[in-house]
Design goal:
The structure holds two protein chains of two kinds. By secondary structure, chain A is an all-alpha fold. Chain A has a single domain (21-136), classed as Orthogonal Bundle (Globin-like). Helices cover 65% and strands 0% of the residues of chain A. Chain A is built from eight helices and no strands. Chain A has helices at 2-17, 24-28, 31-47, 61-75, 87-91, 98-114, 119-130, 133-136. In chain B, 8% of the residues lie in helices and 49% in strands. In chain B, the strands form two sheets. Chain B has a twelve-stranded antiparallel barrel with strand order 3-4-5-6-7-8-9-10-11-12-13-14. In chain B, strands 1-2 form a two-stranded antiparallel ribbon. Chain B is mostly beta strands. Chain B is globular. Chain B is built from three helices and 14 strands. Chain B has a single domain (2-283), classed as Beta Barrel (Porin). The longest helix of chain B is centred in the N-terminal third of the chain and has 14 residues, at 2-15. The chains are: A mainly alpha, B mainly beta. Chains A and B meet through α6 and α7 of A and loops of B. Chain B: It holds the Pfam family DUF3034. Chain B: It comes from Pseudomonas trivialis. Chain B: InterPro entries: DUF3034.
Chain lengths: 139, 284
């Protein structure tokens, strides 16, 4: 009985500290397999995008892919941990312009369109990522 | 006029190399009747074309509004730089239709030129918490002043200003993006200036409210409504507030089409001037 109450107390306090995360966006994006395809599709679009491909010339694409998947997963409310540098840190000195940011948004939208992601779901992810714009551009 | 337009178009084609189209699709809006980037009957705070910082944007457009008794044709251009300043020009021709013979009028149409300037004061329509806010000035010149003079208009040219605010609310309607615009205009233009400026009833400028709401089904399709308050300076006829219901299609960053049902109400003594609005825009 005492064990049970301790377990209950631990469980309850855990619940109090970590309210169940809203992972509906994560699920709507197709969970890990879906997010992986979206990130890879976006990076393939970037590779063909003369407006911004220069920015990615000396980047470890495999590492970028993995960190982006983590980042998108976290932003979508998924069960991931982002292990990369902060947005500000990773874009420092890159001189990303407002136009560059928009170009990447367009490459992302094209990737999501190809995956058949519904527009309202796309809008939710873009809204989350748009909030990071200030840390990305003009550093 | 036609030569001027062709010359400008040629200049714009050369300009194309400089335009980097750094802004997202549809964020340059359509071309309003007075030439400024925006909706159809009201301007938005956005600037013409797709130029971001250090980039040029330019548009050319043609619009036709077919009403019960009249027809309005407009053609014009806009040039923007740095997502900061916009210059625009629009030439309007308003065919008076059957009214010419009924009232034995000296002209069969009314004409007006509008030179506009818009400056973005602050904000970004998509990315900022605050709305994008722009200040606009329009110099309007009525080219066929005989009729406006006859019905009591006081002057054939005038300057008016407007303050416009635009903001995109992401996912605001069932997950779809909603663009909201509001503006305040300070003007004494009769029927936007087609019937001159100021009148026998009132010769001072009025503060006029304008607004629109657009729902974006995706980045390329929008439907919405617009509203524009108008003054009542002339005693010979009432002047109605304008409204319309529109569908906008932006297949790419070079072309857009707007089709609308416009309710323009009473114009120069004839009531129920409602009809179709069709506008085609090229962006460079």
């Amino acid at each position: 009985m005492r064990v049970l109450s301790v377990v209950l107390a631990v469980l309850l306090s855990a619940c109090a500290q970590q309210p169940p995360r809203d992972d509906s966006l994560y699920r709507d994006l197709g969970a890990m397999p879906g997010i992986t395809r979206i990130v890879e599709g976006m990076l393939l679009n970037v590779a063909r995008d003369p407006r911004i491909v220069e920015h990615f010339r000396r980047v470890d694409i495999q590492r970028l892919r993995n960190k982006l998947i983590e980042k998108f997963c976290v932003e979508a409310g998924g069960p991931c941990t982002y292990t990369g540098d902060s947005m500000a840190e990773s874009h420092k000195g890159k001189n990303v312009s407002r136009s560059d940011f928009n170009a990447l948004v367009e490459d992302l939208i094209a990737a999501m369109d190809k995956e058949g992601i519904a527009v309202p779901v796309q809008n939710r992810l873009i809204a989350r990522l748009a909030a990071l714009r200030g840390e990305v551009i003009e550093h | 006029m036609r030569l001027f337009l062709i010359g400008c178009l040629a200049a714009l084609t050369v300009q194309t190399a400089l335009a980097d189209n750094g802004r997202l699709i549809a964020t340059g809006g359509a071309s309003s009747l007075e030439g400024a980037a925006g909706g159809g009957i009201t301007p938005w705070a956005v600037l013409a074309g797709y130029g971001e910082q250090h980039e040029w944007g330019a548009t050319a457009f043609a619009t036709t509004v077919n009403l019960a008794d009249y027809r309005l044709d407009v053609a014009g251009l806009a040039l923007a730089y740095d997502n900061r300043v916009e210059l625009s020009f629009a030439r309007q021709r308003f065919d008076l239709g059957t009214l010419v013979h009924r009232l034995n009028l000296p002209d069969d149409h009314l004409g007006q030129d509008v030179l506009g300037m818009k400056v973005r004061l602050l904000g970004d329509v998509i990315y900022d918490r605050l709305p994008q806010v722009s200040l606009g000035l329009e110099y309007k010149h009525q080219n066929t002043f005989d009729i406006p003079r006859l019905v009591g208009a006081r002057r054939d040219s005038d300057v008016e200003g407007y303050l416009a605010a635009s903001r995109l609310w992401m996912g605001a309607a069932f997950g779809y993006n909603v663009l909201v615009n509001g503006s305040l205009r300070y003007s004494r233009a009769n029927e936007t200036g087609l019937l001159g400026f100021g009148g026998d009833r009132r010769d001072r400028r009025s503060l006029l409210k304008e607004g629109s709401v657009a729902l974006l089904f995706n980045p390329r399709w929008a439907v919405g409504v617009e509203y524009r308050e108008k003054p009542d300076n002339l005693s010979f006829a009432g002047e109605s507030d304008w409204a319309d219901l529109f569908v906008g299609y932006f297949p790419n960053k070079h072309v857009s089409v707007v089709l609308a049902y416009a309710r323009l109400g009473e114009i120069a003594t004839l009531a129920d001037q409602n009809g179709t609005y069709l506008s085609l825009q090229g962006s460079f």
